[in-house]
């Protein structure tokens, strides 16, 4: 049995971590059975991050490596109908989102002074004094350090948001009027694209990135399509 280790769930959102949403969405797309274990502290995770899975006594970390493993182990191929060129587009989209766009999203939650008080309360509000004063400051410092190491943290706020907004426009243009990224059928990359969009559409955190997503009706419709198909239990009744 597969166990997915991911952060606790908030709002009507599969998860606040896009990487966790990607893996859970893929498990559902592939119709694999799994259970979820909630993780609040990633220090014991195999690579110090979420998500990770256990399967047949093996621990596996990193969303892309987990998907690769599941494809091999369970003979899943959601990309069977794709050409080599389409598979290459998928890889380029995934790299854009996971390796760069992700950090603009992190900025919008952890650094932007408009959103940080809400995020801090959500993540650390239950801690007792003085931990509720110390831990958020240390965690935020750590994130700022990671963003500086990545390079994105060296830009001004308006520059960071401009990068994120251009990435959102690129995704909206790639999707166009198709149902899914590669046409009428969902493929592996849809788990990744959805994981980011849903993380702007559902949580009540305002940011220029959320505003940008909301300007593209095709992205909103796509998100709704993915939600009703794969996470119907989180959809509000009309
Ligand atoms: N490359 C990893 C990235 C996972 C990742 O960055 N997870 C973040 C949450 S979105 C995390 O666990 N951060 C906790 C930490 O860095 O201590 C993947 O694809 O799974």
CATH class category label of the largest domain: Mainly Alpha
* Adjacency order of strands in the biggest sheet: 2-1-3-4
Helix and strand string, N-terminal first? EHEEEHHHHHHHH
Count the domains: 2
Q: Unreliable stretches, pLDDT < 50, 5 or more residues?
A: none
Distance between the termini: 35 Å
Strand content: 5-15%
Bound molecules: glutathione
Give the helix/strand class: alpha+beta
Looking at the structure, the CATH topology of the largest domain is Glutathione S-transferase Yfyf (Class Pi), Chain A, domain 2
Tell how many strands the DSSP assignment holds.
Answer: 4
Any idea what the shape is? globular
Rg: 18 Å
Work out the helicity level. 55-70%
CATH architecture of the largest domain: Up-down Bundle
Summarize the structure.
With 238 residues, the chain is α+β, with helices and mostly antiparallel strands.
């Amino acid at each position: 049995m597969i166990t997915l280790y991911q952060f606790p769930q908030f709002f009507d959102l599969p998860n606040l971590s896009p990487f966790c949403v990607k893996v859970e969405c893929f498990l559902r797309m592939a119709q694999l059975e799994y259970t979820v274990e909630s993780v609040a502290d990633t220090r014991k995770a195999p690579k110090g991050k979420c998500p990770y899975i256990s399967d047949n006594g093996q621990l596996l970390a990193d969303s892309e490596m987990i998907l690769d493993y599941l494809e091999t182990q369970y003979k899943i191929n959601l990309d069977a109908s794709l050409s080599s060129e389409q598979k290459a587009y998928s890889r380029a989209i995934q790299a854009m989102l996971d390796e760069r766009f992700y950090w603009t999203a992190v900025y919008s939650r952890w650094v932007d002074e408009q959103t940080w008080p809400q995020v801090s309360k959500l993540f650390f509000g239950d801690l007792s004094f003085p931990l509720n004063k110390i831990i958020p400051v240390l965690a935020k410092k750590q994130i700022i350090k990671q963003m500086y190491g990545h390079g994105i943290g060296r830009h001004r706020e308006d520059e960071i948001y401009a990068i994120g907004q251009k990435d959102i426009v690129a995704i909206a243009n790639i999707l166009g009027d198709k149902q899914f990224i590669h046409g009428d059928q969902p493929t592996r990359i849809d788990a990744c694209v959805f994981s980011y969009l849903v993380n702007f559409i559902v949580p009540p955190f305002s940011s220029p990135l959320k505003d940008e997503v909301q300007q593209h009706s095709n992205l909103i419709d796509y998100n709704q399509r993915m939600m009703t198909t794969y996470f119907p239990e989180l959809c509000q009744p009309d």
